[in-house]
Here is the input.
Amino acid sequence: MTTPATTQVGGPLDQGPPAEPRIGSRNRTGDKIFSGTATAAGITILVTLAGIAAFLLYEGFPALVAPAEDVPGGEGFWPYVQPLLFGTVLAAVIALVIAAPLSIGIALFISHYAPRRVAAPLGYLVDLLAAVPSVVYGLWGIFFLAPQLVPVFRWLEQTLGFLPFFAGPTSATGRTMLTAGIVLAVMILPIMSGVNREVFLQTPRLQEEAALALGATRSEMIRMTVLPFARSGMVSGAMLGLGRALGETLAVALVLSPAAVISFNLIGSTNSSTIAANIALNFPESSGLAVNTLIATGLVLFTLTFVVNFIARAVVARRKDFSGANA
Here is the structure.
């Protein structure tokens, strides 16, 4: 009869519980450096934005309080900036209305429909469109797009002339607000398509496979799983594109034939200018209070962009709790 072998506590057969990992990782030098660098970067952004706002307010304040007859146009600052603000918003909205569905369609094709050997080069090509200078888009809009759109504008006037947007008379050159909106739509399309594509690719694979296993077609699967999951991302992409369209300068300045009017006619030769284009066109020849007036219009554009981004962040924050796990 054999007796069971005994082990000596602390001997080679009993090493005790494994050692616990060190807890003070946050106190390491690398973590401190990284945390400090990230904090400094965030503070730098805030200080830069505050500095820009302070500069615009300081330099533009004389135009805000100046007598109406001293401001360019002779009617005061707010009557001067209203047509510019209207044109800025109108051109950006046209671009967003055109680019939003196109960007969603392009992103869905690349992420869920195109073969892999086609999707990757197409994605790179769409991303490369963002690197094209705005002056190239402006020249393309003047010399190619505008003449090609003149027959389309005439058809719109004949068919939908009862609407104020297409009342006419049609511009003979095609340099209209609608042309500028199309050019802006092409410019913001790469940004919006890239954001939407990345968001669509993050949809949980299990949700997609579950929808297909239950008998859904590919389009039904996209409508039930991909689009709800990517809703906040699509809003973020749209707001990024809208911000780009609001601040675009050279392309709009080249395409439009601006005037100090508020007009909803999108195909006529009389168009409202935008704030950024007006600054670019008039700043080299301005002096004195005229410069302050242009800077004050820049303050209005800065405020508009800030409000749009603030609203976008609020919309995204309301939907950030949605995910594939808790849907």
